[in-house]
Design a protein that fits this description.
The chain has 160 residues and is of the alpha+beta class. Helix content is 39%, strand content 12%. Helix 2 runs parallel beside helix 5 and helix 4 packs across helix 5. The relative contact order is 0.19.
């Protein structure tokens, strides 16, 4: 797992984790989201993040070429995920999973969150939030609990 030994300063990250390790908190939340969705019939691989968003989280997901990659937009009923349908399929899947990860943060309905957006408007600590969303997106697209167990012997360089 990725580790960060510095101070977590991003407001959303601090709201999410309090005094806990944000990496552990966001990973646990993503794993619980996935486990709950799988229990309700979400299946893969490949795991479809649009189905996760629409069927499990009840979020609107809209394809629009008005965004560079994707964004989470607050609505009267929570949030809507918008993604660019002109991006390659794998990029769209990852971008939607990343936006789902934004919904794990308690303040996700307070402002628009952009993936692949204009970095001039980014705060110096936005990388913390975006990194945690990337970690959660990986958990969503490749759920750890669905991967086969690999024995330590299988990791031997000669076997690989």
């Amino acid at each position: 797992m990725v580790e960060y030994s510095g101070a977590w300063t991003h407001e959303s990250v601090r709201l999410l984790a309090g005094n806990d390790d944000p990496l552990r908190v966001v990973t646990a939340k993503a794993q619980k989201l996935v486990a709950d969705a799988i229990a309700e019939g979400w299946a893969g691989p490949p795991f479809d993040p649009i189905r996760l968003a629409t069927e499990h989280l009840r979020l609107d997901v809209v394809a629009t070429d008005e965004v560079n990659d994707a964004r989470t937009v607050p609505t009267a009923h929570g949030a809507r995920i918008e993604f660019n349908p002109n991006r390659p399929r794998e990029r769209r899947r990852y971008s939607v999973a990343h936006e789902i990860a934004h919904t794990l943060f308690p303040d996700y309905t307070e402002r628009v969150r952009h993936r692949g957006s204009n970095h001039e408007q980014a705060s110096p600590s936005d990388w913390q939030l975006e990194t945690l969303c990337n970690v959660a997106a990986a958990e969503i697209l490749m759920p750890r609990q669905t991967l086969p167990t690999i024995s330590p012997e299988a990791m031997d360089i000669d076997v690989l």
